[in-house]
Amino acid sequence: MNMVTVLNQEDMQTASDYVNNVYEKILSRNPGESEFHQAVKEIFDSLVPVFARHPKYAEAGILERIAEPERMITFRVPWVDDLGKVHVNRGFRVQFNSAIGPYKGGLRFHPSVNTSIIKFLGFEQILKNSLTGQPIGGGKGGADFDPKGKSDHEIMRFCQSFMTELAKHIGPDTDVPAGDIGVGGREIGYLFGQYRKIRGGYEAGVLTGKGLGYGGSLARTEATGYGTVYFVEEMLQDHGHTFHGSTVVVSGSGNVSIYAIEKALELGARVVACSDSNGYIYDENGINLETVKLIKEVQRARISDYINYHPEAQYTEGWQGIWSIPCDIALPCATQNEIDEAAANTLVLNGVKAIGEGANMPSTLEAIKIFLNNKVMFAPAKAGNAGGVAVSALEMAQNSMRYGWTFEEVDSKLNNIMVNIYRESVKAAEEYGNPGNLVVGANIAGFIKVADAMLAQGII
Ligand code: NDP
Predict the structure, then answer these.
(1) Is 250 exposed, middle or buried (0-12, 13-18, 19+ CB in 10 A)?
(2) 382 catalytic per annotation
(3) Which CATH architecture is the domain 71-202 placed in?
(4) Does the chain have fewer CB atoms within 10 Å around its N or its C terminus?
């Protein structure tokens, strides 16, 4: 058993002053970037005990350096729609930290994308990637492009224009993007095709989430959702619970949600609700996953169509209401800040036992506090949803070997990685005086490896 270490109060105060001082500078140097501030705040607060015990990190200015991206690229993405009209979107790529490996992180296409969102995602990605135990640095990118309602040809032309610029900045050993909101297999295919045409060589490892016929990995599509459920199951079992027989609510109905639902069902849970950005469906007997897949993956339609196939289910406009459905386990898998203080209080009042964050930063700082104060088991995103990037790194490994593992091999490596992340997070939380707090544990476990690599490599 690990000993809980009591840290000296004076050292804690010095460390806290250092962390707050750096945080204030970040606020003033990055005005208006509320999502980035939120991600920095959560991580910085967790790291106080680390700086208290190891002043060497403060002396080397690790915090000031880690919160400043190595590079932030923005670019024009012009494209022509099916009617011949010209549109211009803004493309982004943040190359945040490459101390332990090439930049790695997804691309998001959504109208809300801006510098703040890309930087919060990129900053979180540094520690998440470190937690996987694989040699990948942190990056993220995307565009303020709305794929909804666009034809396949419009999506293709947008992806080609986006990649024409992005190709100058990425490569299998420098920066390896993947999918995120609005970027799935179809988009990765178009992006890869354009990259290949520009480079003139077959650099399969430049993107992950590729199709199985051209360098993709089995189980990558399922990885984030499955990984979240593997992590949560480990956490539940550690506390004498399990998915089996539990009632589960999953927000979203995209890539992460669908495969979180699939694995939860396989483990014997009853999943009663899921959503999209318009509203949510509820079926007390359990939703039918094949119908959700048909609507979202094949038809690219709205979740409201579900009741055409299952009239016994209910559809409600407005996705926020999903958190008022009583459940044992809530898996937010849609987007950032989808669980606020009010939603967290409702979940607690309704007796929720565990939260597993499949999306990135889906709970506000206030919501996290409510869960922790009420002893709700809480799996934070950077640990719980690390399965996607972990299998992306396995895809890179297979591309380098020019060899592919079976679904079972990849899935079993994924399961091991998630269990390992859970254990490492529990251990770090205990070692730094916050037993049971996986937010703190995941941040510390992810941070130390990157900080040590930065120390070893000098002030760069
Ligand atoms: P998808 O685009 O496949 O699905 C997103 C889902 O969330 C859709 O149902 C979408 O509804 C809904 N959604 C998106 N934005 C909002 C919003 N502002 N309000 C309400 N609902 C919304 O994305 P993914 O499943 O890939 O990603 C979901 C989350 O998981 C994101 O936070 C992402 O960063 C995170 N993640 C994804 C990984 C991956 O491997 N894909 C890896 C790690 C984290 P609609 O269709 O109506 O837009």
Answers:
(1) buried
(2) no
(3) 3-Layer(aba) Sandwich (3.40)
(4) N
Query: Is the minimum distance from the CB of 255 to ligand 1 under 6 angstroms?
Result: yes
Please tell me the distance from the alpha carbon of residue 433 to that of residue 445, in angstroms, as a whole number.
13
Task: Tell me the mean pLDDT per 10 residues along the chain, length 460.
Answer: 66 96 98 98 97 96 98 98 98 98 98 98 98 98 97 98 98 98 98 97 97 98 98 98 98 98 98 98 97 97 97 97 98 98 98 98 98 98 98 98 97 98 98 97 98 97
Q: Which fold has domain 2-67?
A: Glutamate Dehydrogenase; Chain A, domain 3 (1.10.285)
Domain spans of the chain, in order of start:
2-67, 71-202, 223-384
- In order of 78, 143, 168, 335, 387, the CA distances from 93 in angstroms are 16, 9, 11, 19, 22
pTM of this prediction? 0.97
Buried b or exposed e, range 131-168, using 16+ CB within 10 angstroms: bbbbebbbbbbbbbbebeebeeebbbbbbbbbbbebbe
Catalytic residue among 119, 140, 210, 382: 140
Gap from CA of 263 to ligand 1 centroid (Å): 18
| Ligand 1 within 6 A of CB of 367 | no
Output Rg (C-alpha) for the chain, integer angstroms: 21
Assigned fold of 223-384: Rossmann fold (3.40.50)
Are 278 and 303 contacting, i.e. CB atoms less than 8 angstroms apart? yes
Which residue's CA lies nearest to atom 28 of ligand 1? 334
Q: Judge whether 2-67 and 71-202 match in fold.
A: no
Q: Which residues pair with 131 in a beta bridge?
A: none
**Nearest-angstrom CA–CA distance, 373 and 377:** 10
